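Notes from the 1:1 (GR / supervisor)

We went over the backlog. Supervisor wanted to see one worked example end to end before approving the batch request, so GR pasted a single chain during the call. The sequence is below; no edits were made to it. Supervisor asked that the structure be written out right there so they could see what the output format looks like.
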Amino acid sequence: MGGQPLFILDEDAQRTHGKDAQSSNISAGKAVSESVRTTLGPRGMDKMLVSDSGDVVITNDGATILSEMDIEHPAAQMIVEVAQTQEDEVGDGTTTASVLAGELLAKAEDLLDDDVHPTTIVEGYHEAAALAQEAIEAEVLDVELDDDTLVEVAESSMTGKGTGDVDAGRLAEVVVEAVRHAKTDNGVLRDNIDVHTQTGASTSATELVEGVIIDDTPVHDNMPTSVEDADIAVLDAELDVKESNVDAQYNVTNVDQLNAALDAEEQELSGYAESVVESGADVVFVTDDIADRVASQLAKAGVLAVESVGSSTAKDIVETTGAKRVGSVEDLDEDALGSAETIGVEKHGDDEVTFVQGGAAAEKVTVFARGSTEHVVDEIERALNDALDVTIAALDAGGVVPGAGATEIAAADHIRDSAAAIEGRKQLAVEAFADAIDVLPRTLAENTGLDAIDALVDLRSRHESEGIAGVISEGQTGVVDDPVDYGILDPAAVKREAVDSATEAATMIVRIDDVISSS
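Structure output shown during the call:
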């Protein structure tokens, strides 16, 4: 054994360790963060993302940008996970979390160059994150979360995003109306709010529908396209001739036998139509196929029938109308039917959609979002979903705080004041965390057109003197003022989650000093 090399790893494996590993990981994380930094704030820019197949996405939504990017570096993927976690938990603040994570890594890199141990950095960052949470809690405004306040929250989340030809305030009103409809004693039921997009009109045509909108349309041209006070059936069945599961052959030797077989088939199909009509249903939604002859008989009876309805769509119809989902026409009776004020088929451009409105259960509402092109409606859909999520977060998860970077300035100030009481090199990490938080108001200032350094000085000075200061976009530039006076409010939950997720990702990357990759 003496003198012979001992191979632990495969000869094709690659290993990077020590400062090289730390530098590589931090650089990758910073690069991803920097890619979304210019999208932050009301004056943030959009990114155009083109896939290998030529599909184009235009957005300034951080989570969408990072999910569409083809990122291979494992440390960079951790920043993508930060954005995804932020999106899953509170629905907005993905760019904030990503930018903060990148700046925490940048400050950590400076500390590592000064021979501060990674463990010390991690401990300091976690202590500073706890201080940031204290500051966020102290910034929560003592205001009633009435409709006007929630409109300001929703509008703040959409400002700077693509909202077509309409002011974000108009869409914010629709969002708040939807949230109020879905609010219960146990909180807002997010699953009861859908966003349905449709091209062919301006964004100003966006409206709230008390019910659901489905892409499926009547199966027969002669069926009614509008039904008032509709009795509705939902069937998990195929309204067609049953096929035998046995592989068998039938010998027909004369015309009488053929006619008997055709008569039996006709009776079976007629039976389906008769059962639906006798149940009293005006409208029937079927998750499977409807035979042409059944559809024709239903049309003659004035019944609107829709086939191949998706399972989730059927569930939405049940929740809206109060219908029972049954497995066969034999189970259809008056008790199984739901009801709705109107069922209507409308044509928008080249597409037809079916509206189910005013259902007896009325648990579902749909924001019917309009736009002139697919790119426009896609971005409006993202903006509306973010606005819905932040409005719900404000109601259900701890109130609102001043936006426009004011809460971040307060957090950085609180951390610096508390850092003096922390002993040892950990104090350096705590102060570095405060400096990292400053990147958020500094970036807002840059994207607004202000000088970043001057704006940061003004923000700190005004915060010291008046207790609140943010970067307000005004005209072609910006001003430092009280964001509450401008109605710029953010959910406290978004700030809390951004600090937590960014800190966890940054500290995890900083602790890595060895990267071993197989071939």
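Supervisor's comment: The longest strand covers residues 338-348.
Batch request approved.
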